[in-house]
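My hope is that you will study the protein record below before we discuss the fold together.
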Amino acid sequence: MAIAITPFTALCGFQPPDNIVENLQTVPELAALIPQALVQEFISAKEDAATSNDESTKAALRSSLRKVFEALMTAPPETVSLQVSALLARLSSTEATPITSLVQTLYQQFPSDIGIFCVYVLNLLTLQPGEAIFLGAGEPHAYISGECVEVMATSDNVLRAGLTPKPRDVNNLVGSLTYSMTSGEKHLVRPTPWGGGGDGEDGGARYGGIDDGDGGRVGKTKLYDPPVEEFSVLHVSLRQDETEHHRAIDGPSIVIATSGKGEMVGAGDGVGSFNLEEGTVLFIGAGEEVVWKARSRDGLEIYRAFCE
């Protein structure tokens, strides 16, 4: 999961089938990198899936997308370079759009990289601070610009195939993807008030806050809860001299301060007091109540990844 802390641009997940087909039919440089038989196979599979809910038909569509994507990502470098040049020349005489601007930006950073063409098969999302996306296992993505807080479950691999100076493993990446196709909005994670917080300094409901109707207290903390068991993230944003209490969490936490200055104070005997400023990272063990205090005119902003 990535939570934007500045305006943030990313490619995430495969576009819906209709969008991919449209791009294959209207971006000749993209189509030139993929055998026409595979393009036609994907179009036919998309049409079949549009009129059937049968799982085998959906599986055939995903299989066809895999063939298209594999052909794209393994296109000969000299052909890719030729088609990138042709694409840039054509776009230079067209009206600017977010996609055309992104193509030009990517070319400046990674000339003749096959990843430039991924803008036509992956969803482009621009997030504002506080907005978040979740990418499940086997979902392709690329962070283009901006800063974010990223939280990942334990993993033994990171596979790269484009838009990077690091080693690439195209074959394993192609083999590991789910080839699910959906709109970019489906990847958004919308925060909700967290019932474990409240304002004050020594714990419990006496800290104030608003009752959440389920025995918890709603304070200045938002919860990002992706559809996985491994982690969730709390976001605390305080103005100068404000405080926020967090109940004990039945699992460990990692905290990073992203702006301002302040203090974390243990509400029990197990945690002391720690000063916080931008870049400070803390570990909090399970079962510890804590209080956050903002001590600067810029307030205090922290993100707390946890599991319980």
Notes: The longest strand covers residues 253-266. The first helix runs from residue 17 to 26.
